[in-house]
């Protein structure tokens, strides 16, 4: 089955279709990971995007039951150089082709992904249309121009209901903006009592869960598309220890008065070098983001930059100067790795314990009264 990918700049790639038949549009982005295609295609942060892998051999170890980052893939298409449909791995349960057929995702192989990536690096990410149909190119162009990028991906990927993963240690409320399951895994591995809540849960609803700390998840799209999430965070900063990851980092920055902007082609891969400014240490990190916190917007806020990207010097980590809260743009829960940054979850738990030591439990009623006072003051602002 023939398939084609047309980019906004008119470049047309022709290749072999796999997975579902049909057509779909999305933002075309590239990921440089050598392994981990199952984690990439099931990471909700790619919702609405057509992803190309720069590594040339994809599908060779199949799809297994363990490595999903979400219950289903949300990508709008997958572009590879060579698609291997006879997996060779003891964990493989079925093929990429079957997964894509089940979820209606169109794949294309035999594409010069190196050329595609160079185009995206030069022009920046763009819209594309991927099809297995026989439409005329003019028709594809019209459909592509008429299409618009999604703005509601957080609502599409966030859990609709509250659920918990009980543990006997700290109670963490994980706000799910389109969370990867890796975050829940890291918290539960540490014995945390995790309550996962939908993206639009109010500050009061979160308070009622009496968290010891709040974890902000990754998620798809532009952080400015979820202003209500920023509002909620504004109310919670200072009240609870907070750790934010990726979209959570960007939302936290917006809530603290900083600004975000879109990167030309983003950071997506498993080997992005990040420098921790305090120690001068370099960490190799997994990344997947198209937006970043604007450096100039930090001045005048209560934020301090803790990490930067060694390649392009963009902000990779922040902490609040007054309150127990820190965030990173990259993925400490990365799967299949690197694991360099998983210590950040331990740091979060240390921060919570220290916060508890410094703020011995006040009676529950006093806590609620305080929260209510906070809300009233907020409402009067
Ligand atoms: N992985 C993420 O959370 C990505 C954050 C945001 N959607 C971005 O692209 O920048």
TrEMBL record:
<dbReference type="GO" id="GO:0006207">
    <property type="term" value="P:'de novo' pyrimidine nucleobase biosynthetic process"/>
</dbReference>
<keyword id="KW-0028">Amino-acid biosynthesis</keyword>
<keyword id="KW-0665">Pyrimidine biosynthesis</keyword>
<protein>
    <recommendedName>
        <fullName>Carbamoyl phosphate synthase small chain</fullName>
        <ecNumber>6.3.5.5</ecNumber>
    </recommendedName>
</protein>
<feature type="binding site">
    <location>
        <position position="288"/>
    </location>
    <ligand>
        <name>L-glutamine</name>
    </ligand>
</feature>
<dbReference type="GO" id="GO:0044205">
    <property type="term" value="P:'de novo' UMP biosynthetic process"/>
</dbReference>
<dbReference type="InterPro" id="IPR029062">
    <property type="entry name" value="Class_I_gatase-like"/>
</dbReference>
<keyword id="KW-0067">ATP-binding</keyword>
<dbReference type="InterPro" id="IPR050472">
    <property type="entry name" value="Anth_synth/Amidotransfase"/>
</dbReference>
<comment type="similarity">
    <text>Belongs to the CarA family.</text>
</comment>
<feature type="region of interest" description="CPSase">
    <location>
        <begin position="1"/>
        <end position="171"/>
    </location>
</feature>
<dbReference type="GO" id="GO:0005524">
    <property type="term" value="F:ATP binding"/>
</dbReference>
<feature type="active site">
    <location>
        <position position="331"/>
    </location>
</feature>
<feature type="binding site">
    <location>
        <position position="290"/>
    </location>
    <ligand>
        <name>L-glutamine</name>
    </ligand>
</feature>
<dbReference type="InterPro" id="IPR036480">
    <property type="entry name" value="CarbP_synth_ssu_N_sf"/>
</dbReference>
<dbReference type="InterPro" id="IPR006274">
    <property type="entry name" value="CarbamoylP_synth_ssu"/>
</dbReference>
<feature type="binding site">
    <location>
        <position position="219"/>
    </location>
    <ligand>
        <name>L-glutamine</name>
    </ligand>
</feature>
<comment type="subunit">
    <text>Composed of two chains; the small (or glutamine) chain promotes the hydrolysis of glutamine to ammonia, which is used by the large (or ammonia) chain to synthesize carbamoyl phosphate. Tetramer of heterodimers (alpha,beta)4.</text>
</comment>
<feature type="binding site">
    <location>
        <position position="247"/>
    </location>
    <ligand>
        <name>L-glutamine</name>
    </ligand>
</feature>
<dbReference type="InterPro" id="IPR017926">
    <property type="entry name" value="GATASE"/>
</dbReference>
<comment type="function">
    <text>Small subunit of the glutamine-dependent carbamoyl phosphate synthetase (CPSase). CPSase catalyzes the formation of carbamoyl phosphate from the ammonia moiety of glutamine, carbonate, and phosphate donated by ATP, constituting the first step of 2 biosynthetic pathways, one leading to arginine and/or urea and the other to pyrimidine nucleotides. The small subunit (glutamine amidotransferase) binds and cleaves glutamine to supply the large subunit with the substrate ammonia.</text>
</comment>
<dbReference type="GO" id="GO:0006526">
    <property type="term" value="P:L-arginine biosynthetic process"/>
</dbReference>
<keyword id="KW-0547">Nucleotide-binding</keyword>
<feature type="active site">
    <location>
        <position position="333"/>
    </location>
</feature>
<feature type="binding site">
    <location>
        <position position="45"/>
    </location>
    <ligand>
        <name>L-glutamine</name>
    </ligand>
</feature>
<feature type="binding site">
    <location>
        <position position="291"/>
    </location>
    <ligand>
        <name>L-glutamine</name>
    </ligand>
</feature>
<feature type="domain" description="Carbamoyl-phosphate synthase small subunit N-terminal">
    <location>
        <begin position="1"/>
        <end position="131"/>
    </location>
</feature>
<dbReference type="Pfam" id="PF00117">
    <property type="entry name" value="GATase"/>
</dbReference>
<dbReference type="GO" id="GO:0004088">
    <property type="term" value="F:carbamoyl-phosphate synthase (glutamine-hydrolyzing) activity"/>
</dbReference>
<dbReference type="GO" id="GO:0006541">
    <property type="term" value="P:glutamine metabolic process"/>
</dbReference>
<keyword id="KW-0315">Glutamine amidotransferase</keyword>
<keyword id="KW-0436">Ligase</keyword>
<dbReference type="InterPro" id="IPR002474">
    <property type="entry name" value="CarbamoylP_synth_ssu_N"/>
</dbReference>
<feature type="active site" description="Nucleophile">
    <location>
        <position position="246"/>
    </location>
</feature>
<keyword id="KW-0055">Arginine biosynthesis</keyword>
<comment type="pathway">
    <text>Pyrimidine metabolism; UMP biosynthesis via de novo pathway; (S)-dihydroorotate from bicarbonate: step 1/3.</text>
</comment>
<feature type="binding site">
    <location>
        <position position="250"/>
    </location>
    <ligand>
        <name>L-glutamine</name>
    </ligand>
</feature>
<comment type="pathway">
    <text>Amino-acid biosynthesis; L-arginine biosynthesis; carbamoyl phosphate from bicarbonate: step 1/1.</text>
</comment>
<feature type="binding site">
    <location>
        <position position="221"/>
    </location>
    <ligand>
        <name>L-glutamine</name>
    </ligand>
</feature>
<dbReference type="Pfam" id="PF00988">
    <property type="entry name" value="CPSase_sm_chain"/>
</dbReference>
<dbReference type="InterPro" id="IPR035686">
    <property type="entry name" value="CPSase_GATase1"/>
</dbReference>
